[in-house]
Amino acid sequence: AQSVTQLGSHVSVSEGALVLLRCNYSSSVPPYLFWYVQYPNQGLQLLLKYTSAATLVKGINGFEAEFKKSETSFHLTKPSAHMSDAAEYFCAVSRPGYSTLTFGKGTMLLVSP
Amino acid sequence: DAMVIQNPRYQVTQFGKPVTLSCSQTLNHNVMYWYQQKSSQAPKLLFHYYDKDFNNEADTPDNFQSRRPNTSFCFLDIRSPGLGDAAMYLCATSRGGGREGYNEQFFGPGTRLTVL
Predict the structure, then answer these.
(1) Contact B23, B4 (CB under 8 A)
(2) For testing the chain A interface, which of B33, B103, B107, B114 should be mutated: the one with the most A CBs within 10 Å?
(3) Closest approach of A23 to chain B, Cα-based (Å)
(4) Per-residue pLDDT tens over the stretch A79-99
(5) Which site among B104, B106, B112, B113 would you substitute to test the A interface, given the most A Cβ atoms closer than 10 Å to its Cβ?
(6) 3-class SS of residue B79
(7) pLDDT, tens digit (0-9, with 9 covering 90-100), for B78-113
């Protein structure tokens, strides 16, 4: 079975500060990992994905994440937060050969001026 | 632009009155998914179709049914909505197969269901 744990249901940062959203996974096989963003009353949009290639993955809107097998982590970072980054972020895991995703509970990112 | 479309965006129904939510896609993807998302929670997979093969999650209530008449369309039927079924319903698609690059799911904007 696979699972995802997102530490912190809410994260608050100031505009221009570093964004760090934490995700740890559990998987019996090498996983595929994803970060999605959801704005209010919208669907989910893919930010980035890890599928066994480079461990440092760059995504849209300046976000990146690093796959660390030893730590079973896939934390999402952005060097400088923008007001438009305020949204809910979901980490998800799947495994090769399967198309379904298991989502974490989400982290709401709040950005203050 | 290729996309996933959900209609309507907002749906109001009465307790016990059947309701159907619609999803269409122009991506020509093999797999279509229906998720239920309640406030401040993660999306919960209800079921998915791999082509015409229907896959129901073990804990999806019998009250929820789905139809996929062709590649492009998929419907979610709630036979007798209860107050607890009020949620955002998200449709997603993927190419399927689980191979690298095929797991990415593309989501529609969702339908917010209110049950009175």
Answers:
(1) yes
(2) B103
(3) 14
(4) 999 999 999 999 999 877 777
(5) B104
(6) coil
(7) 999 999 999 999 999 998 765 655 678 999 999 999
